[in-house]
Every structure is written in structure tokens, then in C-alpha cells.
Specification:
Elements (H helix, E strand, L loop, with lengths): L3 E4 L4 E6 L4 H11 L5 E5 L5 H12 L3 E5 L2 E5 L10 H4 L6 H11 L1 E5 L12 H9 L3 E5 L2 E5 L7 E3 L5 H11 L5 E5 L5 H12 L3 E3 L5 E5 L7 E4 L4 H14 E7 L7 H10 L2 E4 L3 E5 L4 E2 L2 E3 L8 H11 L2 E8 L10 H6 L3 E5 L3 E6 L7 E3 L3 H13 L3 E5 L2 H6 L3 H7 L3 E4 L1
Parallel strand pairs: 2-14, 3-13, 9-10, 17-19, 18-19, 22-23
Antiparallel strand pairs: 1-23, 1-24, 3-5, 4-5, 6-8, 7-8, 10-12, 11-12, 14-16, 15-16, 19-21, 20-21
The structure holds uridine-diphosphate-2(N-acetylglucosaminyl) butyric acid.
């Protein structure tokens, strides 16, 4: 199996271009099958999660083309059949197909979705929404049969602002009869991106990006063109790398307001950056001081950036704190980070205390999950000597051409 090998300590200069957002694209692709004509999605990242969704589209008999980040999907001849367990379990976003198929055919059979093992990841809020819309949900172990004579608009209150449940409910309700009101929804930019995509096809969704989304059901969704927004987590990862190793490093094609919770923390730590309309130029200068973060739903500090921030915190003077409030198992990267020389103590899998500054030394390490893998990669970039990362399939699920992008600006990193 391939690995990533990094020789640490090299300064990075030049430009890194951000790709389309993974967590947006992985919802847009399953959303596309709700369309009654052909859709085109551009700026699709070249990551293995999209390959896995493409495999499901092929299995369902959709007609697809994918070239240079442009995906066309024609679902006019798709077959509503059970997606095999091994396909569902490759990624979390497979369950968006469950909602699109339910919304389109009022019947779906599917297995529990996969995804990184960063917590229990229940789907109770999605099932609650299906039931509220009038569907009967039969749970047979990890397999679900969901059926409705008719899906009818309803009022749904989510127990927590779940990204997945918000998107699933939109997908299931977009063709339901009447009006659906979803309260306490997630406000992530990816939610807005999915709602805009559906509205471009003729859906009637209002309020995406606020606490309440209102959907008036429509019968038909027509041909449309849509662009994936820039990946704020990929952008944030490179901004962190820039704060550690940048020498006039510019991160391009991002939306700075989407990562303000990160940039404001970096500035608090003493990082200097130049933020323009769609890029950030950053340079490692002087000393940084410890800061504390707490992960929260958007617009709070994203859980997906707390692991990539940890290598940065090992280089800050004093004790930094990271409090994880979304996932129960998101400090798996700490074990190897400490092996490389960090001084991190994790309490109850919820709070990490990072004492800096510590020198990191290259080691053979493992990517335990996607963002944990990115975290190890950043450790490798700043460490003395050679770091080799195993299990890199996790990293390739979510970071488009990460080795190529970093090599281009001066990193010594390769896939071996
Ligand atoms: N939750 C429930 N019940 C539900 C749904 C969620 O209890 O029915 C809980 C979860 O256990 C978790 C919290 O609510 O504690 C938030 O979960 P959410 O549903 O928002 O997460 P998700 O949709 O499964 C997406 C991203 C994750 C990201 C989270 C939070 C995708 C494909 N995944 O997951 O991204 O961490 O939102 O922002 O969009 C990643 O990219 O590395 C990643 C894990």
C-alpha cells in the first residue's frame, strides 16, 4: 500500500490553489439524481470520496462524464435498487443517496453509511425526518427500508444542527407535497451550496445559512449547472501550513469569511497574514503564543480543523487547549504526534492540552482518519528528518493532489 514520505523543514513559497469542497461535492453528486434532466457540476475535487460516489452512480445506471473537475450526471434512466453494503460503507455521504432515492421514488433500501471512525455517528435525526415526512422506516440491523405512499411537508426540529440530517431532510423534502419547515438546522456553507444547487433546478428552498429552512415541494427538477464552493477545510489546512513554513505563500481561490474562526485564532497567536477577497498570503515570522479553541458548529471553530491545528499549537509558547465538542474520538493523531516529540495530554477524549514549544522529529506514523492524517502530514513538514505516513487512503479521500500542491511550493513530499 502507498505511503507519503516527507523530508521536514523546508520553507514554502509560491501559490497553492484550493479545490472544490469535499463536503459540498459529496452531497451535490447524490442530490443530482433528484433532477429529472441532466445536471453539470464544476469544480469537483479529484478525491477518492468522489470516485466512490461515481461508483454508486454507475451502479444505479446513471449516465456520467467526468473530466477536469466537471461532472455531468444524467439520471433519466436510473434504477432504484439497493446499494450494496460495501459501496455504502466506503463513505458517510453514501446516505445522501438514501434521501435522494426516497425523495424521488418514495421507496429506498440501503445500508448504514461509512465514514471515518471519529465517533459513533448515529443517523437518528435523518430517520426522524423521514418519519415526519410520512415515511415508514424499517430497521433490520444495519439495513434500512424506507417507504411512503406520499411524502408530505412537515415541521421538523433537529435535536442538534447536524450537517448530514439537514442535507438529508432537504433532499427528502424537495419533492414532497406542501411545505416543510426544518428548525435548528446546520448553517455550514456546504448547506447553502446544496440548497442553491437544488434551487437552480427549480426547487423552492429558503433560509439555508440560517437556523430555519423552509421547503415548498415541487414536482419536477430541471437541467442546471452548478459550481462547488472552495473547500474551507483544505484552505484552512494550507493556511496553518503557511503559518508554520510560509515565505510569501499565497493560498488562492478560497472564501476568507468561511475560515474566519481559524484566521482570527492564528492572528491571536501572533501570525501575520494578508487577507484579500479570495486569497490569503502568509509568512512564518517571529514567535507564536499559545491559544485555546473549542470546536462548534459553523460559524464556530470547525472540528475538521482542530486536528490540523495541533501541529501548529506544538510550536506556540505556553499551554494551548483544544476542546472537541462534536466527535467523541477525534484525538487519535495525538499518539503519533507525541511520538514525534510533542507534549500533549488528552483528557476524556474531549480536551487536549498542548505544551509548546516542542521540537518534532520524523518518524513512521499512521493516518488514523482524514483530518488526523492531515495533522500527521503537517507534523512531518515541520519535523527534523524523514516522516513516513501509512494508511494514507484516508488523506486521499479528502485532499485533492496534496503531495503535488505542496511539492510545487517547495515541500519535499512524495507518494511512495
Ligand atoms: N448526530 C446525531 N444524530 C444524527 C446526526 C448527527 O447524534 O442523526 C451528532 C453526531 O454524532 C455528531 C454531531 O451530531 O456528534 C454532528 O454531526 P453531523 O451530522 O453534523 O456530521 P456529519 O454530517 O456526519 C459532516 C462532515 C464531517 C464534519 C461534520 C461536522 C460530511 C460528509 N462530513 O459530518 O466532516 O466533521 O459534518 O462539521 O459532510 C471530515 O470532512 O473530515 C468530516 C468528518
Amino acid at each position: 500500500m502507498s505511503k507519503i514520505k516527507i523530508e521536514g523543514g523546508h520553507k514554502l513559497t509560491g501559490k497553492i490553489e484550493i479545490s472544490g469542497a469535499k463536503n459540498s461535492a459529496v452531497a451535490l453528486v447524490p442530490a443530482a439524481i433528484l433532477c429529472d434532466e441532466e445536471v453539470t457540476i464544476s469544480n469537483v475535487p479529484n478525491i477518492s470520496d468522489i470516485d466512490s460516489l461515481e461508483e454508486i452512480l454507475n451502479y444505479l445506471n446513471a449516465k456520467i462524464t467526468r473530466r477536469d473537475g466537471v461532472l455531468t450526471i444524467d439520471s433519466s434512466n436510473i434504477v432504484n435498487k439497493e446499494i450494496p453494503e460495501e459501496m455504502s460503507q466506503k463513505l458517510r455521504a453514501s446516505y445522501y443517496f438514501m434521501s435522494s432515492l426516497l425523495g424521488k421514488y418514495k421507496h429506498v433500501e440501503m445500508y448504514f453509511p461509512g465514514g471515518c471512525t471519529i465517533g459513533e455517528r448515529p443517523i437518528d435525526q435523518t430517520l426522524k425526518a423521514y418519519r415526519a415526512l410520512g415515511a415508514v422506516v424499517i430497521e433490520e440491523g444495519n439495513r434500512y427500508i424506507v417507504e411512503a405512499e406520499e411524502l408530505k411537508g412537515a415541521k421538523i426540529y433537529l435535536d442538534m444542527p447536524s450537517v448530514g440530517a439537514t442535507i438529508n431532510t432537504m433532499l427528502a423534502a424537495v419533492k414532497a407535497k406542501g411545505k416543510t419547515v426544518i428548525e435548528n438546522v446546520a448553517k455550514e456553507p456546504e448547506i447553502v451550496n446544496v440548497a442553491t444547487f437544488l434551487n437552480n433546478m427549480g426547487a423552492k428552498i429558503k433560509g439555508a445559512g440560517t437556523n430555519v429552512i423552509t421547503i415548498t415541494g415541487v414536482d419536477y427538477l430541471h437541467k442546471s449547472f452548478h459550481e462547488v464552493i472552495p473547500d474551507r477545510i483544505e484552505a484552512g489546512t494550507y493556511v496553518i501550513i503557511g503559518a508554520l513554513l510560509g515565505e510569501n505563500l499565497t493560498i488562492k481561490n478560497l472564501i476568507p469569511s468561511h475560515i474566519e474562526s481559524l484566521t482570527s485564532k492564528l492572528i491571536e497567536a501572533g501570525v501575520e497574514m494578508n487577507i484579500s477577497e479570495d486569497s490569503i498570503t502568509i509568512e512564518k515570522r517571529g514567535k507564536y503564543k499559545a491559544v485555546s479553541i473549542k470546536t462548534l458548529p459553523y460559524p464556530g471553530f470547525p472540528t475538521d480543523l482542530q486536528q490540523p491545528l495541533i501541529p501548529f499549537l506544538t510550536q506556540c509558547h505556553g499551554i494551548s487547549t483544544v476542546e472537541e465538542t462534536i466527535w467523541e474520538n477525534r484525538f487519535q493523531n495525538v499518539y503519533d504526534t507525541n511520538r514525534m516529540g510533542a507534549n500533549i495530554i488528552v483528557k476524556d477524549n474531549r480536551i487536549a492540552k498542548i505544551k509548546g514549544v516542542t521540537k518534532l522529529t520524523g518518524k513512521n506514523v499512521t493516518a488514523t482518519d482524514l483530518r488526523g492524517g492531515a495533522s500527521m502530514l503537517i507534523c512531518g513538514l515541520i519535523a527534523d528528518g524523514i516522516t513516513t505516513i501509512d494508511n494514507i487512503k484516508y488523506i486521499l479521500r479528502g485532499y485533492d493532489n496534496i503531495c503535488g500542491k505542496l511539492s510545487k511550493v517547495g515541500a519535499k513530499i512524495e507518494l511512495i
